[in-house]
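Exercise 7.
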Amino acid sequence: KKTPLGRRSWKMLYATLRDLVLYLHKDEHGFKKNQLYDSLHNSIRIHHAYAEKAVDYTKKQYVFRLHTAEQAVYLFQTSDSKELESWVDTINLVAASLSSPPLPSGVGCQRKFQRPLL
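Solution. The predicted structure, written as tokens, is:
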């Protein structure tokens, strides 16, 4: 969501990662009860997603960036560098392990047509 004059508002949320969905909870009680914050609008699908440390973001410490397949970009701040590395590694591992492989390209440079192996 765009903010006026490019300003971001940061919210304290609890996050859980299940399969290929990152669920965001309003507080620790919602986290423990497994209730979603507001609605399913506060969940992020991480299939074909990529997380990276936001080294160019200097306003806050321990921030990582999550790029999704839908071309959305999210910023998350963690409490320390160890937690930051843990989130980045876990998201990338889950996204790479559980996402389906990319489809073969439609046009190739082979002279003879071959059906792709499934």
